[in-house]
Amino acid sequence: MLTKRIIPCLDIHDKKVTKGVKFKNNVVLGDPVEMAARYYEEGCDELVFYDITASAERRPIDIEMVAEVAHAIRIPFAVGGGISTLDDMSRVLLAGAEKVSVNSLAVKNPDIIAQGARAFGSQCIVLGMDPLAVDNLERCPSGYEITTRGFRERSGMDALEWARRAVDLGVGEIVVNSVDADGTRAGFEIQLTKLIAENVPVPVVASGGAGNAQHLTDVFEQAHADAAIIAGMIHTGDTTIPAIKAELVAAGIPIRQHW
Amino acid sequence: MIAIIDYRAGNLTSVRLACESLGLDAQITSDPAAIRRAERVIFPGVGAAGAAMGHLNELGLVNTLRMVVDSGLPFLGICLGTQIILGHSEEDGGVDTIGLLDGNVRLFRPGDPLVKVPQIGWNSVKQKRSHPIFEGIEDESEFYFVHSYHPAPTDPDCVLGETDYAGVTFASVMGKGNLVATQFHPEKSGRIGLRLLNNFANWNGIPEVGGRRSEVGGQEC
Question: Where does the pLDDT of residue B120 fall: very low under 50, low under 70, confident under 90, or very high at 90 and above?
């Protein structure tokens, strides 16, 4: 049986892993390569790295770091932030990443998804989206609007419409990162995750709000997420991947237990 | 030396890094002479079958692959490399592929809309018969899969391992003589995947006779 994936997310700022709340007040937590190696040893199923300032600072992604991570771990990882061209994608994949994640730049230039899927295959291209709950249902019928540039800008685009369009353009997976839940550790936004997961044919990764194992159980059982991103709850040492996995197994969720 | 065949089908870095982490001498190459000189061959790949066959033909590698397999060199297909050693793929509107094994490649068509395509993630492999590449690997171990199409070999005796997804039980490991092929990515499957790669690196290309895990009868490939 296909198991649900637990994916630690490492937000990288100036070669260090940081963690903030709603993309603000980031504090330094450690070295990305060391943390990746530790989570790999502890049995995480995949990893994702976001170079959180590359896009805003208009500089390319830190390829050296991607290559170091690729040397350290033998599981898949995705890299996002600052990816705007096919050449950027190619460099990240050649350095050993399994997937690239596009977000703000795909909102501005959706064709990058189609180009990337043609060049490298859909399975390499992940759409990251940062939807915000909104009241204006005329503008955004799903009740969620896509934000860009680390929640700083509102795009006017409906989240579900964008998810469907991105699938048509060729993304192989969608990470749904709730702006409202991000960094709160109060649980994933079930309604949003379920809305996207039930309406696109590709895997959906829940992101934003993970605070304990019950939150993961909820998002897998109630929202049909295929994978879940965790960050603060393990970065701070409050819990560990094996402890989370043990709780999920006890709750009857299909989880990879041997590695 | 292990030749990792480069036919412009996706990222081969992770295969090379996995081999290096095992202390193996592995080289990424598209040179037919270098491939024929290798002690064993890994044929990886991600992407689409149509483009992959186009590149293999441009590079003149199809015959090289046949020669390698005929010569008895241990040969490991991975993911797209596994799919295109079958005879035909449904991908790209239907593509004739290399045909080192009889059979075809089919799209997952889940009846349940919550079952997603591509299959992405860790799924278990039921070992259908013993083989040197499974040495030290427990039955039902999980490996990392990323694919929308799955192998459907004609000869059931070539099925070394099976995996369930989207309502089908498909051949996730195939083997015939000196050829083995996995739909999953051993290079991305943690320590268990490394064990499989190391088993391949130590394999002489002769499948062990006997040792069948399922009750189904049949001949050794």
Answer: very high
d(CA A33, CA A49): 10
ipTM: 0.95
Is the pLDDT at B134 greater than 80, yes or no? yes
Strand A47-51 and strand A5-13: the pairing is: parallel
Tell me whether the omega of the peptide bond preceding residue A203 falls within 30 degrees of 0, making it cis: no
> In this complex, is the C-beta atom of A38 within 8 Å of any C-beta atom belonging to chain B?
no
- Counted domains in chain B: 1
Q: Please check whether residue A224 touches B, CB under 8 A.
A: yes
* Chain center to CA of B113: 28
Residue B165 lies in a domain: yes
Chain B nearest-CA distance from A83, in A, is 17
Q: Which residue of A94, A122, A201 is in closest CB contact with B13?
A: A94
| Chain A residues with CB-CB distance to B46 below 8 A | 120-121, 123-124
Percent of chain B that is helix, strand, coil (3-state, to 5): 30, 30, 40
State pLDDT tens for residues B161-203.
999 999 999 999 999 999 999 999 999 999 999 999 999 999 9
Which chain B residues are within 8 Å of A45, Cβ to Cβ? 121-122
CA dihedral sign, ordered A156, A162, A165, A169: positive
Position B212 in a domain: no
The pLDDT value given to residue A150: 80
The predicted model scores a pTM of 0.94
* Domain CATH code at residue B179: 3.40.50.880
pLDDT at B212: 45
Query: Is residue B174 domain-resident?
Result: yes
Average pLDDT value for chain A: 93
**Amino acid letter for position A91:** R
Question: Which tokens in the block code for residue B199?
Answer: 């088993």
Burial class (CB in 10 A: 0-12, 13-18, 19+), A114: middle
Domain boundaries, position B46: 2-201
Burial of A199 (0-12, 13-18, 19+ CB in 10 A): middle
- End-to-end CA distance of chain A: give it in Å, rounded: 16
Residue of B nearest to A224 (CA): B114
Tokens found for residue A162: 């964008």
Residue B35 lies in a domain: yes
Q: What is the pLDDT of residues A20-79, one digit of tens each?
A: 766 667 788 899 999 999 999 999 999 999 987 776 677 778 899 999 999 999 999 999
Residue of A nearest to B10 (CA): A120
